[in-house]
Structure formats: C-alpha cells, structure tokens
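Look over what follows to help learners.
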Amino acid sequence: MTLPAIRVAELPEAGALAQVIADAFFDLVVCHWLVPDPVERRRVLQPDFEILVEHGIRQGTVHTTDALDAVAVWFSDAPEGIGEIRDYDARLAAAVAPHTARFTQLDDVMHESHPTGRPHEYLALLAVKPGLQSAGIGSALLKVRHDHLDAEGIPAYLEASSQRSRSLYLRNGYVEVGKPLAAPDGPDEIMYPLWREPVRS
C-alpha cells in the first residue's frame, strides 16, 4: 500500500475528522466507560471530538490526508495539555449530555496526570479510519510531526488509549511514564501515559 501524503487540516474539515476519531475509538475501553450504551456512544462521540479537532486547527497542529481518513491533533506548551477552549463547559454539555459528568471526570484524570515543568508537545488524538489501520498511516502521521520536534529538540507526551496504540507508540520512540490511568469507579487501565525524547541527528 502506498502511504498517502500528509497535510495540515482546515477548519471546514473538523467534522469529518471528528467522525474518523469517533469511528476508530468507538470500541475502546475508555469510550465504553464514558458512554456504556452503544447507541448513545455513537451519538455523542463525534460532536465531542469535533470540539477538540476545531481547537487543534485553531490553536495547535492538525495533520490529515487528502481523503480525510486519518488525523493527528497536537498542542504545544499547555500545562493541562490542550489549553483553554472558549465556552468549553457549555459546548461539552451540549455535545454529550446527559453523560457530561463522566467526560468531565476523564478530563480531570488526564489533567492531573499531565507532566509539568518541561515544555513539550502533546498528542491529544491520533486516529485512522477502521479498515485502513495497521497499514502504516498512523506511523506516517507521527513521523511528520516527530521530524519537526526532533529538529527543534522538543519532547512529546500522549496517553495511549489501547494496548494496540500503546504498541504503535512504543515502536515510534515513546516510553512509559507513570502508571496507567484509571477511570473513576471504572476500569483500572483506560490509558497509558507515554513520553518521547527528541532524536538528535
């Protein structure tokens, strides 16, 4: 398979890219915990992810393909990871109600575990459309940003959301930092914090 070209995403593409993430993440343990009912999960995931993709396009770096079948959302130097999103609480409630409490709990868990004290890039989301996974597209998305981070000497942080994605990141230079994140009153392992030091040429 020939890997697609990677480019910067544009704001009108946020909804389609959020749908790619929702489809790719639908069966994750953390998403089952957030919204146990599959019909409700299908309804709320896309608008929730659209908030983050839009913010990434405006305030971070979002890469995709011309076919909009893969996406990576990066943020720089925000202590809590993604920085302040205008009207976030109201937008989140509008997107995910009546499941807002669990989404807020997850935000708190991720915020509390986010590393501080050293500037770094945060990979908030990386997803490839189901059916195209395991073909190298995720690694291609990572390489585009890693090349920039290596040139600038900037480390990266993320939370892998499955053992499969954890393995992908470990193959791309990340190492585990700290214990897996646990859901409040839920599974003991829903995400795996990982860190990557820049590669010096």
